[in-house]
Write a structure and sequence with these properties.
mainly alpha, Muramoyl-pentapeptide Carboxypeptidase, domain 1, Arc Repressor Mutant, subunit A, three-stranded antiparallel sheet
Amino acid sequence: MQAAAATESVYWGSRGDLVRQVQQKLQKWGYLKGAADGVFGKDTYDAVVLFQRKNGLSADGVAGAETLAALGINTVKATSATTGKSKNLDLLARLVYAEARGEPYLGQVAVAAVVLNRVEHASFPNTISGVIYQSGAFDVVGDGQIYLTPDAQALRAAQDALNGWDPTGGCIYYYNPARTTSSWIYSRTVNTVIGKHYFAK
């Protein structure tokens, strides 16, 4: 029998290292202006609620399992490794489907690879969920497309990327020049073009 997962939660009045981790993540992404002092007070509560609203989570001010996962904080004490891998695959496939359905298969693998490259990059959260739910990173999180059910091709593309296939050559950005409104992205070095997406470092 598999051990049940046990996940901590922190909320108004909580103290300790997990609160500090939450505060540091919220500071890094611009939600929290106050100190990371390990005390969950009004500023932290307001920042958590704002983060939850921006990322399509229940805005209850409690940093529970889903909010902690979105922040890239793993507090699961005992769980199946297979379950964790399955959740990562599903989330990555949902991102691929939302961002790149209609793109060639190679382009779908490339989108998944960008997420994984960000996980390994010091400038981004160090988990798949943290990267995907990072504030402002992917429009499909804000508009709800992330919750669409991925098709078999998106699942296969996500698995290929998890297995190590990176058609981008290490890129951490991609964009569609016909749709992007960001002038900043054009300052990045384009490494390859696949379908409608430009992949850049």
